[in-house]
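Re: that chain you flagged

S.,

Sorry for the slow reply, it's been a week of failed gels. I finally had a moment to sit down with the sequence you sent. For the record, here it is as I used it:
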Amino acid sequence: MAGPDTTADRTGHAHDLHAGLDALDTTPTHRTPLRTTLTRKVLPPLVALVLLLTAWQALVSLRVVDDPSRLPAPSAVADALTRSWLEGRLLDYIWTSLSRGLLGFALALLIATPLGLLLAHVPLLRSALQPLLTGLQSLPSVAWVPPAVIWLGLNDRMMFAVILLGAVPSIANGLVSGIDHVPPQLHRAGRTLGAGRLQTIRHVTLPAALPGYIAGLKQGWAFSWRSLMAAEIIASFPDLGTGLGQLLENGRTAGDMAMVFEAILLILAVGITIDLLVFGPLERHVLRTRGLHTGN
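Prediction finished late last night. Pasting the structure tokens below so you have them in one place:
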């Protein structure tokens, strides 16, 4: 009879540990009202965007920059976006790049997560590999495009290789950093509750390291997206389809600045959308469950 109760108690304690010690010392937070979210999070960037577009249009209208081959008017870029949409090419541009980016990021996640765990728990491996990963993290991903083309040819495998080389170091280092910052009290509490090494990693280390891990994921996605754009710009080839990087390169080749700005705006929009819809809510959820999110 005592067995199930003891197991339930341990499960309950393990669940409490998921929130970390910070949750025990911090006043519980509540969800931010929608009106507050709109006025503090949505309105300021919209106002900044309107001001930016106004300043851009003023530069053209006041003929501060009177050469459209150098700076097109916002209306010319809007026309280029509208034309792509009406011709049915706009979503193809976005999906070609986004599907590559998401698949490459998923592969990087599968490789970097166990690699980060190994680095955090095997000191000799960490001493050997972490300086190399840190060096790779600081290396511009565009440097990998020429060797990737020579090794793999002009195909999607080359694109994924460049994405992996850009994203894996960031994700692995983020996880290692998150594990390094896990309070040792949590490990002692886990051992006191009878957790073995694997149970400690699963129920204590990984949940407590989530904030650092998610920060690494955000950085890893940024590196994935940048790496992909660099690969698409340099390794433009008809059989690869037209992604956003190729669209940017096509605009440069044609001397069409409206197309160049169209590509830049789409690249920026995809990056912001992924952050707002995926990583932002995920980060807020993890911090809120640990009593670390202020709601501001």
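What I noticed first: The CA atoms of residues 83 and 89 lie 9 Å apart.

Talk soon,
D.
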